[in-house]
Design goal:
561 residues, alpha+beta, Arc Repressor Mutant, subunit A, 6 domains, five-stranded antiparallel β-sheet, four-stranded antiparallel β-sheet, 17 helices, 29 strands, 35% helix, rod-shaped
Length: 561
């Protein structure tokens, strides 16, 4: 029992004399809580039929002395003392208030008591959480808290969880929480349902080995975050989880290995990418000088460069770091080297070709990664056309406008009657088919025809769209550029564009205008760059857009007067 309760002069502490022993506590919530528990533990209990009971009135008096040494003055203070006493008794394992009287106790001992229930044994709780299931989303074991509480309720009280009184439930919860916390289990809510969960301990060394293997397999190419996360989880925990987020210690290991391998440590668009290479300042000029040394190969899709040949030449450039295949492909398609290749007439993409697609076929049994010429012109001397029944002519050149069912350029060679018959069929205001392309001409309104006779007695007729002729073109309408595949820029590009624009442009700007006109879709390639004799480009006059291109070039000093 409490013999006395005194406060320090500054009221920061108070001292209790409990059964002759003095104890000093801080005069705050935590200090009072500890004083109440210490005092309740020394209250003399009684034993009835092997059960221990705590006198409720005595417990109430102890709490009142500690909380209100000067006495309880209000009903609100009394209610607070009652609530605090209940919580403290529950924390110590005592149940709800009950009345004891004769014959269980003597007449003098009759009154209100609280029965002490058995303490929750740690083995009961740990045996239950050991059977927890693995979470599908995160690397942790988890179990519904009420599953544990229900099992422990049977062990302690011999009743189901829902049959316990609120104070019994609170006592059990507090004890189970303390035991699980001691075993490193944590608590969380999923909706309104409480769970106990235990984060799994990762095997860092196995994770490190797996990340190293992933980086080696990538060979310098980007790595999907989800891929490396899944493989890291499997190595670290022996299981994969739906959420790709790694534990802090695994994330730290991953970032360290990424940095050592030359990768950025933060994913972009879901993937880790190699850091930009430090390139020589004049790499574009050096590559341009080496470009003619790269052997060209003929394929069914036109002239091509082998990717491996380009990489071999790149490694000859001094001070250029060793390139992975992915880094080389990026430089060739989107980087400074890609600009050089585009100016040389190659596509800004890489594609795979089978050995049989090369002319002649390759002996190698494996497909090859190549960069094709953007303009792929065929010169099939045996190609024929028959629009008039039973009469055929040779067609050294056919360029069609697939967007408008029109002809940009067409050359017919053959006997006079055959050429005239096919010509009449072509311009007769009827739908015709040239290969798989639909063609409809309304007479000769949009075209110019050039006729000539050959020494052998045949005739050669050429039909050319007016917008493909610098002499006949209308400067206010889109125009066509014929491309024989022998020049990086069609020869008529500058004179035809200059004729269309009011803004002054110089001939030495042709390369810049061609590159940026294509980038802004002012110049587009027709028929995927394929054609017989010629391919064709469509260019838009668009004075405002071209003026912006010129102004940007002057501002950035890519061009000058």
């Amino acid at each position: 029992m409490i013999d006395s309760c005194t406060r320090s002069p500054d009221e920061k502490t108070f001292t209790l004399s409990i059964n002759g022993d003095r104890h000093t506590y801080t005069n705050d919530k935590e200090g009072k809580r500890q004083a109440i528990l210490d005092s309740l533990n020394v209250i003399e209990t009684i034993t009835v039929a092997e059960d221990t009971y705590l006198p409720d009135d005595v417990a109430l008096q102890v709490v009142a002395v500690i909380m209100f040494p000067d006495g309880i003055q209000t009903e609100k203070a009394y209610e607070m003392v009652c609530r605090t006493a209940v919580k403290a008794c529950t924390h110590l394992g005592y149940g709800d208030e009950i009345q004891l009287g004769p014959p269980l106790v003597s007449f003098s001992q009759r009154g209100s008591y609280r029965k002490r229930y058995p303490a929750v044994a740690p083995q009961w709780v740990l045996a239950e959480v050991d059977d927890a299931s693995l979470n599908r989303d995160k690397p942790q074991k988890e179990i519904m808290a009420q599953t544990v509480w229900s099992q422990v309720a049977w062990e302690v009280y011999g009743q189901s969880w829902h049959e316990l009184t609120p104070s019994q439930q609170d006592s059990l919860k507090q004890q189970v929480d303390a035991i699980t916390q001691e075993a490193n289990w944590r608590q969380t809510l999923r909706g309104a349902t409480p769970y106990y969960f235990l984060p799994l301990t990762p095997d860092i060394e196995k994770a490190r080995q797996e990340i190293t293997a992933v980086l080696a397999e990538a060979e310098g190419a980007p790595i999907y975050h989800s891929r490396v996360a899944v493989r890291t989880q499997i190595a670290a925990y022996g299981h994969k989880f739906y959420e790709p987020q790694l534990a802090p210690e695994l994330e730290e290991c991953l970032q360290q290995l990424l940095a050592e391998a030359g990768y950025g440590i933060q994913p972009k668009d879901g993937e880790y990418r190699p850091l930009p290479l430090k390139l020589p300042d004049n790499i574009g000029e050096q590559f341009q000088q080496l470009l003619p040394a790269i052997p060209q190969h003929q394929t069914q899709l036109g002239t091509a460069l082998l990717f491996q040949d380009v990489v071999r030449v790149l490694q000859e450039i001094p001070d250029l770091p060793t390139l992975s295949d992915w880094q080389a492909s990026q430089l060739m398609t989107t980087g400074v080297l890609g600009k050089v290749l585009r100016q040389a007439g190659y596509q800004a993409v890489l594609q795979w070709l089978q050995p049989y697609q090369f002319i002649p076929s390759l002996d190698d049994m494996y497909e090859q990664l190549v960069m094709l010429k953007e303009v792929r012109v065929q010169n099939d001397t045996k190609r024929q056309l028959s629009l008039a029944k039973g009469l055929t002519v040779y067609t050294p050149a056919i360029v069609l406008d697939s967007d408008n069912d029109n002809i940009i350029y067409l050359e017919m060679v053959g006997h006079k009657q055959s050429v005239r018959a096919n010509w009449a069929a072509l311009v007769g205001k009827k739908v015709r088919w040239i290969g798989r392309q639909r063609v409809y001409l309304d007479g000769m309104k949009e075209h110019v025809m050039i006729r000539s006779s050959l020494p052998c007695g045949w005739v050669d007729h050429i039909l050319i769209h007016k917008q493909a002729s610098i002499r006949e073109m209308n400067p206010e309408e889109p125009f066509f550029l014929l491309d024989d595949g022998c020049h990086a820029i069609p020869p008529l590009f500058y004179p035809m564009l200059n004729k269309c624009l009011a803004v002054p442009v110089l001939e030495e700007w042709a390369g810049y205008l061609w590159e940026n006109g294509r980038a802004h879709n002012l110049i587009t390639l027709l028929n995927k760059g394929e054609g017989q004799g010629y391919a064709a480009w469509r260019a838009l006059p668009a004075p405002d857009e071209w003026q912006e291109v010129v102004q940007a070039g002057l501002k950035d000093r890519h061009i000058c007067f």
